[in-house]
Design goal:
heterodimer, A: 273 residues, alpha/beta, Alpha-Beta Plaits, 2 domains, 7-stranded mixed β-sheet, 4-stranded antiparallel β-sheet, globular, B: 155 residues, alpha+beta, 3-stranded antiparallel β-sheet, two-stranded parallel ribbon, 5 helices, disordered C terminus
Chain lengths: 273, 155
């Protein structure tokens, strides 16, 4: 994603006030130096930043600012180019194409992450893969919601699922899912750029949702509609401290919590209708 | 044995809004840290403060692992949040003057006492009230101390 950087030159004493004032705009991250505050905004949100509204702030704080364009680049390249392969029980091994093959593993996935989440290293992905192991994916219709690298959709494909929709709001994830599916010879993963609103299909047998609390809570009614009566959803991306909140929301939507797994302070939930 | 620290990175990130983009991307990426993991962890930890500016100090270790600590928001940011709560709006109208109450000022002063270089909560409250006025917010009601002074420079 391209970004804009606004660099505000401001007196140190007034910096905190300016930070609070510009915090009301669409900037998502801020960095302070001894003489400036840099505020960052995604290119798509930059139109929400009204230069006239910024100028009005000068009634409270004296400042100047300049705006520079920061083109997209893969900032995660260093980690991605030398990460360690990972084994989830002896069920699934995940490696990049520059790693040697695993000696003994049921399913071997090649994942070359390109600014997308999901290599199996994180507790949430690890538990999602573990929770997928006992499920029957053969000829099952699957939705991977927040697919990242496409790791879970690709594994579903290896386990016999068909068809498979994989959706992510981030463009690098949309592209990376296609790349990784190709790398693994899985040709029935349909990569979709967007949100749940872009998924017009229904009747999914299995939904894989490793996202975050906010998105999961907002999506529960829609996910309920999209799941087959005897279907299963695997949720992760939720912290243990959020369990009561999630459990209450699941109950309200008439979901049935079948299993709760914990790794580190992260949860993975197995849920049915 | 304690892990060897490579560097500390200090940023201010809105709750739930960490992205693998500048400034997080270049700062962590150059150190070989998995940025995606940081974003996942930060966003999960800050779900309850979505959209609020949060100072975060990230410790990067030589083995490319990391830890982070989320600090309390600057007083001015807390004042802005307090003014929004009072108006019941997520986006305050910048053409109108917002307001905060003395109870809100007290809560912020108590939260920021360590940073305020003040010995008494009342002194801290006066400083916070001064910051509020500097950013166009009015403080409603009389000051909750005997002489009713609301001067900003009393310490």
């Amino acid at each position: 994603m391209n970004y804009y950087k606004y660099t505000f030159a401001v007196n140190e004493e007034k910096r905190e006030i300016l930070l609070a004032l510009i915090g009301e705009f669409a900037f998502d991250t801020f960095e302070e130096t001894t003489e400036t505050i840099s505020a960052y905004v995604p290119e798509k949100s930059d139109t929400e930043i009204d230069p006239k509204a910024l100028e009005k702030l000068k009634q409270f704080v004296d400042f100047d600012y300049e705006k520079t364009f920061i083109p997209y680049q893969n900032w995660n390249d260093v980690w991605e180019s030398n990460f360690q392969p990972i084994l989830v029980d002896n069920f699934c091994g995940i490696r990049a194409d520059f790693h040697p093959n695993f000696d003994k593993v049921d399913y071997e996935l090649l994942i070359n992450p390109q600014m997308a989440f999901g290599t199996g290293h994180h507790e949430t992905t690890f538990m999602m893969i573990q929770a997928m192991q006992p499920l029957d994916f053969s000829r099952k219709k699957v939705l991977d919601y927040g697919c990242g690298t496409g790791i879970l959709a690709i594994l579903a494909g290896m386990l016999g699922a068909d068809p498979i929709d994989a959706v992510d709001i981030e463009e690098p994830s949309f592209i990376n899912t296609k790349e990784n599916a190709l790398l693994n010879g899985i040709n029935n993963v349909h990569s979709i750029l967007g949100t749940l609103d872009n998924i017009t299909d229904h009747d999914y047998d299995i939904i894989l949702a490793n996202i975050n609390r906010h998105v999961i809570l907002d999506s529960l009614p829609t996910l309920y509609q999209k799941l087959n009566p005897d279907g299963t959803i695997l949720f992760s991306g939720i912290l243990e401290t959020d369990f009561d909140l999630i459990k209450k929301a699941l109950n309200e939507e008439k979901f049935i919590l079948k299993e709760k797994n914990l790794k580190g302070n992260w949860l993975c939930l197995v849920v049915t209708k | 044995m304690a892990k060897e620290v490579d560097t500390f990175i200090k940023l201010q990130v809105k709750g739930g809004a960490a992205n693998p983009a500048p400034p997080i991307g270049p700062a962590l990426g150059a150190k070989g840290v998995n940025i995606m993991e940081f974003c996942k962890r930060f966003n999960a930890r800050t779900e309850d403060a979505r959209g609020k500016i949060l100072p975060v100090v990230i410790t990067v270790f030589k083995d490319k692992s990391f830890e982070f600590v989320i600090k309390t928001s600057p007083a001015a940011v807390q004042l802005m949040e307090a003014a929004k709560l009072k108006k019941g709006s997520s986006v305050p109208n910048r053409d109108k003057v917002g307001s905060v109450t003395w109870d809100q000022i007290r809560a912020i002063a108590e939260d920021k006492m360590a940073d305020l270089n003040a010995f008494k909560v009342e002194s801290g409250m006066k400083m916070i009230a001064g910051t509020a006025r500097s950013m166009g917010l009015t403080v409603q009601g009389d000051a909750p101390w005997a002489d009713g002074t609301t001067s900003d420079d009393v310490n």
